[in-house]
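Sat 14:20. Reprocessing the chain from the morning session after the first attempt stalled halfway. Input below, unchanged.
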Amino acid sequence: MVQIKTPEQIAKMREAGLVVAAIHAATREAAVPGATTRDLDMVARKVIADAGAKSNFLGYGGFPATICTSVNEVVVHGIPDDKTVLKDGDIISIDAGAIVDGWHGDAAYTAFVGTGHAPELVELSRVTEESMWAGIAAMKLGNRLVDISKAIEGYIKRQPRPSTGEHSLGKFGIIEDYGGHGIGSEMHMDPHLLNYVSRKRGKGVKLVPGLCLAIEPMVSLGTAQTEVLADDWTVITTDGTWSSHWEHSIALTEAGPIVLTSPDCGKAKLAEYGVTTAPDPLA
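Finished this time. Tokens:
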């Protein structure tokens, strides 16, 4: 069952989305050389508490933290701890979520720790983020789920091969085992959204008003394959290449999409794609 939201429910999801945006802003500032991933988790906990919201990550399936902190070759679901100390030149993907009155927000971004990052890492993050926006731009009334997958995959495949630097095998790998999802009264709901086109999956659901999705491409500088470490959470690339993860939660309305976890509802970025966003439901 795909959950369709009312305007009032979308407004609550926007509230949760703004808490997630605040977590991103605070953790981005705190992601400096010498900080531990536990430090970042404590920053996120304070933002959630100050907003009077709840964490949707803490305790989810037994997950022990408020955010996921995925460093370098870790793709997703990295667990914050005191042992992982950020170093100059690292990249870190931070996935965060929040609940307001039972409605969820979920978003992720990749940050650069310190300065002097290799060009292939800068390009990796750019391509992953832009593929996300290409997917969001394809979230139009009348389209189907596969149109989002096609836009994400198509954007990545159109990009020049990355330089074969220290962290790269000279290609972009679209991670196959993880993807986007519906979101609303739960963090993970139907439908599952692939970041590539699969003939086995067909066209997927039709995109209609009230549909809410978390669109989240994950891309590596090598393989599309992953493995899960012994903690049953941490997902790494099988070839050790570094990866990037970007995500936003989006609501589709009669007036267009609303990027619920973006401070400006995605207005500036989607304008680059010729897409007009719906008004902020909290304005």
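The mean pLDDT is 97.
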